[in-house]
């Protein structure tokens, strides 16, 4: 049995699901940026970002991944703010 091939197939399937969820998250982030524009609120909400990180760290089963999960969410939220900025400057 080719383990490498099987593992990569599994990663490909997971990546597909991540991409679908990523797209949904970014679509919602765009909607949030429209609300913020209407209400004249700035894009960054540092308190909310800390809550997002803490909440998701609490869901983690393998605590060895704490550091990388935090990095993942910080990067994800930076991309989300990029999309919000683009949306508000169209
Ligand atoms: C999406 C928002 O805007 C920004 C992006 C966040 C995110 O991607 O989770 C969180 C807080 C904000 O800095 C929000 O305010 O909820």
UniProtKB/TrEMBL annotation:
InterPro entries listed in its UniProt record: Chorismate_II_sf, Chorismate_mutase-related, Chorismate_mutase_GmP, CM_dom_sf, CM_II_prokaryot
Residue stretches making up the Chorismate mutase domain: 1-88
SMART domains: CM_2
Claim: Isomerase is one of the keywords in the record: yes
UniProt keywords, alphabetically: Isomerase
Residue ranges the record marks as coiled coil: none
Name this protein carries in UniProt: Chorismate mutase domain-containing protein
